[in-house]
Amino acid sequence: MSEPAAAAEPKIVAGRSCAGCTICCKLIQVRELDKPRLTWCTHCDKSQGCTIYATRPNGCRTFYCGWMMTPDLGQHWKPLHCKMVLTYEKAANRIAVHVDPGRLTAWREEPYYSDIKQWARHALANQGQVIVWAGNRVFAILPDRDKDLGAVQEGQHIVTRRREGPLGVEYDMVLLNLDDLPQDSTASPV
User: Fold this and answer.
1) CA–CA distance from 142 to each of 21, 22, 27 (Å)?
2) Domain extents in the chain
3) Are the CB atoms for 188 and 92 separated by under 8 Å?
4) pLDDT tens digit string along 1-54?
5) Which residues have a Cβ under 8 Å from the Cβ of 160 and sit 6 or more positions away?
6) Which among 135, 180, 134 is positioned nearest to 161, based on CA atoms?
7) How far is CA 119 from the centre of its chain?
8) Residue 172 vs residues 55, 143, 157: alpha-carbon distances, Å
9) How many CA atoms lie within 13 A of 106 on its CB side?
10) DSSP character at residue 2
11) pLDDT exceeds cutoff 50 at 128
């Protein structure tokens, strides 16, 4: 997946729109509105869209999901259909898959799972991460396994660890509190 948040001007894929889709209004946190993840925005009319569209906060104004911004994502990744929202967190070099609580295992289904695993291989090769938010749990996606990191607390960071093993490089991801981070760590807050 490319870096949709990196461009100053959003480059929406030709022919794609948010029309009829409001899943991000449920799954994504909006700090300006004090809206937590996994709750419907009070300004969202599921059949009409945003009721404060003209005055919506900047976080909403500039947000486009990965499907809107990434040409190589197929129609199956449209959030309205798959019940997942893809985001790219540039500061953390992280792809995050936000899963609707009504379909918590959707990310493990095909064709999604194969895509997610491919992203994980590419991300690790480029010092990045792929995570899945399934309810209040976060899963670290590694090429050889998926690791349930559990429920994330405020101020925790995901750390990628790399070591040489008998079969080559081995990766792991762990969830640490800020005070527990190694000095040389490249941790990413969640």
Assistant:
1) 30, 30, 23
2) 20-63, 64-190
3) yes
4) 544 444 445 689 999 999 999 999 999 999 999 999 999 999 999 988 999 999
5) 124, 127, 129, 171, 172, 173, 186
6) 180
7) 12
8) 43, 10, 14
9) 22
10) -
11) yes
Q: Which residues face 48 on adjacent strands?
A: none
For residue 87, the number of C-alpha atoms closer than 13 Å in the C-beta half-sphere is 20
One-letter amino acid of 53: Y
Q: What is the 3-state secondary structure (H, E, C) of 80-128?
A: HHHCEEEEEEHHHCEEEEEECHHHCCHHHCCCHHHHHHHHHHHHHHCCC
Amino acid identity at 17: S
pTM exceeds 0.85: yes
- DSSP alpha helix (H) spans, 28-93: 58-61, 66-69, 79-82
